[in-house]
Amino acid sequence: MKFYKDHYDVIVIGGALAGLSSALMLADKGKDVLVLERHNLPGGIASSFVRGGIEIEAALHEMMSIGAKDNRLKVGKFFDDMGVDIEWLKVPEAYHASFPGVEVTLHPGLERFAKEVDGVVPGTYEKVLKLLNLCHTVFDSVNELSIHPMSKAKMLVKHEAFVKTAGYSTQEVIDTFDLPKKAQELLAPYWIYVGSGFSELPFTIFAVLMADYIGYGSYIPRKFSHEMSLKMAERAEAMGVQIEYRQHVDKILVRDGKAYGVRTARGDEIYADYVISSSYPNKVYTSMIEPASEVPQKAIKMVNARRMSLTAFSVIMILDQPAAALNINDYSIFRGETMNTDILYNNLAGLGPYRYLTCICHNYGNPTCTPEGTCSFSVTVLPQVNGWKTVTAEEYDAVKHRVAKQVIDDMSDYFGANLLDHVLEIVIETPMTVSRYTNAWNGCIYGYAHTMEDHIVARLQTAEEESIIKHLEFSGAHAISGDGMGPQVTNGRKAAKNVLDAMAAEEARK
Ligand SMILES: Cc1cc2nc3c(=O)[nH]c(=O)nc-3n(C[C@H](O)[C@H](O)[C@H](O)COP(=O)(O)OP(=O)(O)OC[C@H]3O[C@@H](n4cnc5c(N)ncnc54)[C@H](O)[C@@H]3O)c2cc1C
User: Fold this and answer.
1) What are the C-alpha distances in Å from 267 to residues 97, 247, 280?
2) Count of the separate structural domains present in the chain
3) Cα(44) to centroid of ligand 1, in Å?
4) Do 83 and 228 fall within a single domain?
């Protein structure tokens, strides 16, 4: 029996959240889809692993765009609509903010959050709520416009707040609210989830981030992020998608400017009308297109012009005490030596010491995720990719252990408990780990940096420019909706929609 069919409608490279979302949507519309995944499991970064008999989350801190069962947001709704049944647990808080002069836990709900900020910086309730409401208005506009594009003139009437703020940075918009510095700082901790300092982070991105996480709260799957990818793969197969693991795609075959198939590392040539790539455009245009002469100069210029966003360094520990016994009292702690996001962003350029730590204790969201009497605690830093690119193979072990020691010691000092004395299991993930397991370009987990020149609004205006080789689409953190597990579902759906629209247009032309 032949391993592959003679022809597919669509080949999807990569069986993680983005690729599987594309596959589900295409299969739902009756298309014949093949997913090729180089790993022996689905999920990419959305995964877990087992140490000492304990299952441990590999990455996920919190999912956005899920929403409560009776009020789903777009990602939660997509899972429901596709019959991907995930047991969602609501994260109990927004975050604990820890920076000089501030120790406070803030909770989701726009009004509650504004009240809690007012508790720390009295007299700010009205202004903070007004800012959060503006975020919510922009969030609603982005959601509507991403489904129903409209003329600029119409947009000005229907989506005034979105249009008015779209050309401004987060800092520029926040400045118009005349908030005291400390109140501004309390609004800053999530900046790391989009990886740009406020002076260059487009307000639109900040608005979506705040409205989603603060407005609706965040969620985690009971069985870790791998629950999402495993159930998506299971459902996709039930819908007729062929998924093949341990199949690394080496080449995307292109003729006369149009993709028509792929070649795997073991030499299989497989043909399809369309190809969707989870591999970064940087990788695709520099080494995957065959023949290389099919790569237009503008593709190389485009990837060279874009700045890569952040990668990840994470220390994940299982500790031999319940969290509270070690003074760990929150699900999520953002700890900064300052809350000036531009300074913090610059600090991510090197190899440490790192000054902004993102910590998660999953037990506060998922109480039975580790055996009784233990807890799971991780400290994550999201460095810029360039610093880690300089680390040589000889230095790697020493750098990895030095950075891990720094972040563990910093948090041990903070808790007043030496975490290293309590380690049952410890895993250190570096940018190299991410790169090795997911093939992500330079280990980048966030795609391209959000900047005032290059972000979702700008990219939506020039989306056609990104369609360089016909019948080749991209889905993954490098695509228009950017980084994060939730946005990968959106990116995957968008790539599938582009394919479906193109198929329909071709059908109409016949
Ligand atoms: C420590 C850490 C914490 C994070 N925390 C959060 C969080 O709390 N919330 C959040 O929303 N996001 C979080 N993220 C970011 C998020 O995980 C990523 O943005 C997202 O998962 C990227 O998904 P993806 O589908 O683009 O890519 P990936 O997950 O990288 O998947 C790419 C897939 O394609 C496969 N592949 C690549 N090349 C090929 C090829 N040539 N042939 C075949 N297969 C190929 C890979 O094996 C992989 O399965 C975190 C990431 C890390 C590392």
Assistant:
1) 52, 10, 21
2) 3
3) 5
4) yes
Phi, psi at residue 41, to the nearest 5°? -140, 155
Considering the domain architecture, whether residues 45 and 115 belong to the same structural domain is answered as no
Residue 233 is part of which domain span?
A: 8-49+63-87+223-306+449-509
Q: Indicate if ligand 1 lies below 6 Å from the C-beta of 407.
A: no
DSSP 168: S
The answer, yes or no, to whether any atom of ligand 1 lies below 6 A from the CB of 477, is yes
The answer on pLDDT for 1 being more than 70 is no
Question: Over the stretch 308-349, which tens digit does the pLDDT of each residue have?
Answer: 999 999 999 999 999 999 999 999 999 999 999 999 999 999
Q: Is residue 470 part of a domain?
A: yes
Contact status, residue 261 vs residue 269, Cβ threshold 8 Å: yes
CA atoms within 13 A on the CB side of 38: 20
Q: Is residue 1 part of a domain?
A: no
Distance between CA atoms of residues 40 and 231, nearest Å? 15
Helices within 350-391 (DSSP H only): 385-389
CA distance 43 to 24: 14
State if pTM tops 0.90.
yes
Q: One-letter amino acid identity for 6?
A: D
**Longest pairwise C-alpha distance within the chain:** 73
Task: Give yes or no for residue 44 CB within 6 A of ligand 1.
Answer: yes
Q: How far is the CA of 402 from the centre of ligand 1 (A)?
A: 26
Across the chain, mean pLDDT equals 96
In a domain, 54, yes or no: no
Q: Which amino acid is it at 118?
A: D
Q: Is the pLDDT of residue 149 over 80?
A: no
Residue 413 lies in a domain: yes
| Pocket lining: 476 vs ligand 1, CB cutoff 6 Å | yes
CA distance 412 to 102: 18
Q: How confident is the model at residue 151 (pLDDT cuts 50, 70, 90)?
A: confident
Q: Pick from 277, 260, 286: which is nearest to 479 by CA?
A: 277
User: Would you say 293 and 340 are in contact if contact means Cβ atoms under 8 Å apart?
Assistant: no
Give the end of a domain, one of 187, 216, 245: 216
Q: Does ligand 1 come within 6 angstroms of the Cβ of 47?
A: no
Residues 6+ apart with CB under 8 A from 480: 456, 459, 460, 463, 466, 491, 494
Atom of ligand 1 nearest to the CA of 378: 1
Write the CATH number for 403: 3.90.660
